[in-house]
Design brief:
Length: 125
């Protein structure tokens, strides 16, 4: 079936460490993976996207890998802060000129979303 997979299910990290999570999908015509996080205030924050093997992260993140079907896109949070504690989502999408750049936090009806990678950062120094 048309599926999007994400892992790990949860991450427990310390401040100033980095955190990585992965997303893959099996939708043959899709070659875009978008990354978001849902903050404590419930709004979605856009973290960047990948088309094919090109990543376009927002500041503070890396996006590497392959967004084509069967590939894996890796999101790296470069330096964890208490603000990094959030639920992270990936979505697979079709690359179409009218959709890009996808700089808003609204996903289109062509997106298959699947939970989740909660990242919890400790407040210990």
């Amino acid at each position: 079936g048309n599926q999007v997979h994400q892992g790990p299910a949860d991450l427990y990290k310390n401040q100033r460490e980095l955190a990585k999570m992965e997303c893959s999908h099996s939708i043959s015509s899709y070659n875009v993976i978008l990354w978001y996080k849902q903050s404590n205030y419930r709004e979605f924050v856009y973290l960047g996207y990948m088309i094919g093997t090109s990543g376009f992260p927002e500041v503070g993140f890396d996006i590497e890998g392959d967004a084509n079907a069967g590939g894996t896109s890796t999101l790296t949070i470069k330096q964890l802060t208490p603000n990094s504690s959030a639920v992270y989502y990936c979505a697979a999408s079709l690359h179409s000129a009218s959709d890009l750049p996808l700089c808003s936090t609204k996903t289109s009806s062509l997106v298959y979303c699947r939970l989740i990678t909660p990242v919890l950062t400790s407040h210990c120094i």
